[in-house]
Give the backbone structure.
Amino acid sequence: MATALFPAVRRSLGTVRWYLEGMMGADAYRRYLDHHAATHPGCDPMSERQFWKDKYDWEERNPQGRCC
């Protein structure tokens, strides 16, 4: 019985992790890579470090509603 619960618990925790990463923006680089691969094949994407720098610079220049 307990072994039958493990897959369901793991799936539920994965869903919670996916939701929280999306809500907090932690998946932004992965989404950027997916978009870049689809729209700019053959071009190198920004490094993760450059991506986050550009993202935060843009957010500072273009303030929007945010909690902090």
Notes: DSSP finds three helices and no strands in the chain. The mean pLDDT is 84. The two ends are 45 Å apart (CA to CA).
